[in-house]
Amino acid sequence: MSGLPRPLAALAAVTLLSGAAAVPVTAGERTPQAPPVDCRAVKCVALTFDDGPTRYTAPILDTLQHRHVPATFFLIGPHALRYRADVLREYRDGDAIGDHTVTHPRLIRLPLARVKYEIGTAARQIASVTGRRPTLFRPPFGAWNARVRAAAGAEGMPVIMWSVTARDWKYRDPPRIEHRVLRLVRPGAIVVLHDRYATTPPAISSIVRALQARGYHLVTVPQLFATSTGLRPGMVYHHGP
Ligand SMILES: [Zn+2]
């Protein structure tokens, strides 16, 4: 835990103004490096966190804030409604926010109408908090097919997979999570972690420090692709340049 919660005044202003409709807040406070990083020219890595927010999100945000780095969060819609302050903090800090469905199903088993519901409804739930629709989609369990791509594309979202999985859902052991990420990471990596287990936040500070010591720039998923291919709705991405 580090420092005080950031601009309480800003948050208060949002709360006062929001009423029925969410009001966009200014994003980008924790932007990593200025001018923007060119991930074709330097080593980049994008840490991503799925399934939140939960009570384990805030300690991760504290660490990211302390290290002045952004991440990408793929939110479950009802969790976003329950942990609104954490979603607003992610947005305000300059983290990227993606859609991770309403009920976290294995979408490839579902008919198109249900797939559309899962993606579209979660997008609206997230937007009701931030005032902006998410621009990224990650399918639960990484399970996608043509229907999932089409439904994400229809919502204007690319499908974001990963190149490194921390297996934090399995190990529940901070040193083991850390070692696995640091062993597998390569320039352009998208690393999947989860902000739903107590054992993940304690691993994050060491991971960030070790990556920075190796010369990595930590970026959001959109930043990872900003100077190369960009991200196109309905396309699937596993790693950056
Ligand atoms: Zn998930």
UniProtKB/TrEMBL annotation:
Q: Which residues form a coiled coil?
A: none
Gene3D superfamilies, A to Z:
Glycoside hydrolase/deacetylase (3.20.20.370)
The NodB homology domain, residue ranges: 43-219
Its signal peptide is: 1-27
* Highest rank taxon of the organism: Bacteria
Determine if Transmembrane is one of this entry's keywords: no
InterPro entries, per this entry? Answer: Glyco_hydro/deAcase_b/a-brl (IPR011330), NODB_dom (IPR002509), Polysacc_deacetylase_ArnD (IPR050248)
The alphabetized UniProt keywords are:
Hydrolase, Metal-binding, Signal
Q: Which Pfam families match?
A: Polysacc_deac_1
List, alphabetically, the SUPFAM superfamilies matched: Glycoside hydrolase/deacetylase (SSF88713)
Give the protein name, as stated in the record: Polysaccharide deacetylase family protein
